Every structure is written in structure tokens, then in C-alpha cells.
């Protein structure tokens, strides 16, 4: 059985493009530099990477060879294609290395931030399941036999656990079906566009969505413009960096306005997918003729804002989940402890 080619991880992509930029910048031909880096790649990826090197030796352009190898994401293929057009392959390899290095670092930070809260939630779910299956039935029978009146809070908790025990499997099935349907819809552009429109209607989501999208979009667009690619030609390539159908639609509409002679800042303002900072910096770029520097400033500024947001989320997520877990466990303990105390006092009397 032939295994499908394995894609490089973000860490391996960062290493590969970083070293490729260094070797190409040192004057080593691309194919030779590519072959030198094969030994550092995972064994499952070497055959497809070696095949890509052979195709480049036969005259196939690097971006097409990368796409056919199926070891690289579509974004990397698009950016390398832009490097072929501008002759700035070294610079764009550095951009890709920085992009995937940051992506890998963000993923590690996200895992570190979510690991402890997820562990607490799993423990809480296991505690709830164990209480539903083993503790609550015994506790209920004991209360009935002792004929001890239960407080209202304990009655509500028992009713809740009884409902979970009887109908929890159906609720879990409905949740799984809903997740499957959402994943199916997310993989279809038309449905994904509708979902994204609903998501950005949530309070505060629209502004952070634009900050996140413009940080990625402006970073790649600045490099392409600095490499000499016309603005109209590099918009679609830069928009591919943003995994959002809605933002890509905004960029496509702005491109139509640019073809009619509209300025970029005006097109962004008319499409209502810019921010005051973005529109101001684009206007400055138009006046000075330095679009690339204005876009680079946007990427740096919004990158710092996203890092601050991620730091706040990491700082508050763990304590909040720990507080909720403790509160729920405290409520359960009190609901079960009070009837036991009533039982003990009735026995003593």
C-alpha cells in the first residue's frame, strides 16, 4: 500500500526555508541547496522532496515542483511563486521561515495555555460521569430508606444527574452530530462564508477579526510589493495567507475597485473591511509612494496587539477554569454533605 506524502510540520518548514534562504543567499544554486537540506528532513518526506529536486533539474519551476510533491502547504507554494516572479527568492524564503516559526511558536503557546484548563475540564467530566453512574444511585436509595427530607438544592442536583444519566447519551450523540455538520459546513466555501459572517457579528469579534486578517495579509503583501510585483497581481497571493473566505471576498471586491482606478485606501474604506489605522497607513503609503513600508508597519503593529491579546488569554484562562471547577465541586459537596449531616443528627436524636 502506497502511503500519501507527509506534509512538513511548521517547525520543519521554518528550518527548511531558513536554511534554504541562507544557502541561496550564499550563491549556491537552488537545486543543490535543496538536495543539501534533504538529510535534515523527516524520512517520510524525503522521497517527495527528492522527486521535487529532480523535477527542478528537468526545468520545472520550484513552486510547481513543491506543489506536486504535496509536502508543502499551498501558502508556501504561492509565496515561492511570487519569489520566482520578482527574483527575490531569498527574501521570500526568509519571510516563510519567519511566518512558520511564528506559527509554530503560537501553536506551542496555545497548547501550553489550553493543556491545564483542558485537564481540569476532563477531570470534572470524569467526576460528573462517576457521580451519575455510581454515587448518585446509591445516595438516592439511602435517602429514600432513611426517609430524610432533602433540601431543595440537593433535589435539583439529583434531578439534574438523573436526567444526565437517562438522556446524556442522546445529548452526546446530538453534540457529535452537530460537530460533524459544522465541520462539513466549514469545509464548503459557501457555508463557511455564512458561518464567518455570523461569527463576526458577535460583540468585539469584528475588530479582532480584521486585526488578525490584516496582520497576515499586510505582511506578505509588503514583501511582494517590495519585490516589484504590481499591487493588482499580488493581492490574491497575499489574501491566500488569511484562512478566511470572508476576508478573501473583501479583497476580491477591493481588487475590482482598483481595476476601475480607485485608490487602495478608498477601496478598503468602500469595502468596509479596514480599520482607521489601516486606512490611515494606506493613505500615507499612497502619498509617499511607499506602500510596502506602510503595510510592514501595519503588520508589526497588529502583530504586537495580537501578542498582547494572547498573553491576556493565557493569563486568565487557567485561573478562570480552575475557579469554575472549584465552584462546581463545592456546590456538589455541599448538596451531598447537608443531607448527610441531617441524617446524622436524626440518628443521634
Automatic annotation (TrEMBL):
<feature type="transmembrane region" description="Helical">
    <location>
        <begin position="316"/>
        <end position="341"/>
    </location>
</feature>
<keyword id="KW-1133">Transmembrane helix</keyword>
<feature type="domain" description="Type II secretion system protein GspF">
    <location>
        <begin position="16"/>
        <end position="137"/>
    </location>
</feature>
<dbReference type="InterPro" id="IPR042094">
    <property type="entry name" value="T2SS_GspF_sf"/>
</dbReference>
<feature type="transmembrane region" description="Helical">
    <location>
        <begin position="167"/>
        <end position="186"/>
    </location>
</feature>
<dbReference type="InterPro" id="IPR018076">
    <property type="entry name" value="T2SS_GspF_dom"/>
</dbReference>
<keyword id="KW-0812">Transmembrane</keyword>
<protein>
    <submittedName>
        <fullName>Type II secretion system F family protein</fullName>
    </submittedName>
</protein>
<feature type="domain" description="Type II secretion system protein GspF">
    <location>
        <begin position="217"/>
        <end position="339"/>
    </location>
</feature>
<feature type="transmembrane region" description="Helical">
    <location>
        <begin position="114"/>
        <end position="136"/>
    </location>
</feature>
<dbReference type="Pfam" id="PF00482">
    <property type="entry name" value="T2SSF"/>
</dbReference>
<keyword id="KW-0472">Membrane</keyword>
<dbReference type="InterPro" id="IPR003004">
    <property type="entry name" value="GspF/PilC"/>
</dbReference>
<keyword id="KW-1003">Cell membrane</keyword>
<comment type="similarity">
    <text>Belongs to the GSP F family.</text>
</comment>
Amino acid at each position: 500500500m502506497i502511503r500519501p506524502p507527509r506534509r512538513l510540520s511548521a517547525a520543519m518548514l521554518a528550518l527548511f526555508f531558513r536554511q534554504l534562504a541562507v544557502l541561496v543567499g550564499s550563491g549556491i544554486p537552488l537545486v543543490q541547496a535543496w538536495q543539501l537540506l534533504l538529510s535534515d528532513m523527516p524520512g517520510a518526506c524525503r522521497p517527495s522532496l527528492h522527486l521535487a529536486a529532480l523535477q527542478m533539474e528537468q526545468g520545472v519551476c520550484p513552486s510547481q515542483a513543491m506543489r506536486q510533491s504535496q509536502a508543502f502547504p499551498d501558502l508556501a507554494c504561492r509565496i515561492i511563486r511570487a519569489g520566482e516572479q520578482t527574483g527575490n527568492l531569498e527574501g521570500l524564503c526568509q519571510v516563510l521561515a519567519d511566518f512558520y516559526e511564528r506559527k509554530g511558536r503560537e501553536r506551542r503557546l496555545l497548547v501550553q495555555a489550553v493543556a491545564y484548563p483542558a485537564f481540569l475540564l476532563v477531570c470534572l467530566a470524569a467526576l460528573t460521569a462517576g457521580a451519575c453512574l455510581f454515587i448518585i444511585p446509591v445516595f438516592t436509595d439511602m435517602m429514600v430508606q432513611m426517609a430524610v427530607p432533602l433540601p431543595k438544592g440537593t433535589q435539583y442536583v439529583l434531578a439534574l444527574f438523573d436526567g444526565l444519566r437517562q438522556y446524556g447519551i442522546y445529548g452526546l450523540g446530538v453534540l457529535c452530530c452537530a460537530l460533524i455538520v459544522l465541520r462539513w459546513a466549514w469545509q464548503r466555501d459557501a457555508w463557511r462564508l455564512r458561518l464567518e459572517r455570523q461569527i463576526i457579528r458577535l460583540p468585539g469579534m469584528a475588530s479582532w477579526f480584521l486585526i488578525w486578517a490584516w496582520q497576515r495579509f499586510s505582511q506578505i503583501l509588503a514583501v511582494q510589493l517590495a519585490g516589484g510585483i504590481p499591487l493588482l497581481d499580488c493581492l490574491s497571493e497575499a489574501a491566500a495567507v488569511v484562512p478566511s473566505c470572508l476576508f478573501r471576498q473583501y479583497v476580491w471586491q477591493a481588487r475590482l475597485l482598483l481595476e476601475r482606478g480607485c485608490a487602495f485606501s478608498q477601496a478598503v474604506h468602500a469595502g468596509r473591511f479596514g480599520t482607521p489605522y489601516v486606512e490611515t497607513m494606506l493613505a500615507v503609503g499612497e502619498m509617499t509612494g511607499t506602500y510596502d513600508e506602510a503595510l510592514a508597519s501595519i503588520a508589526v503593529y497588529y502583530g504586537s496587539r495580537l501578542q498582547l491579546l494572547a498573553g491576556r488569554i493565557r493569563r486568565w484562562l487557567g485561573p478562570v477554569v480552575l475557579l469554575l471547577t472549584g465552584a462546581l465541586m463545592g456546590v456538589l459537596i455541599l448538596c451531598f454533605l447537608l443531607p448527610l449531616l441531617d441524617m446524622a443528627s436524626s440518628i443521634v436524636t
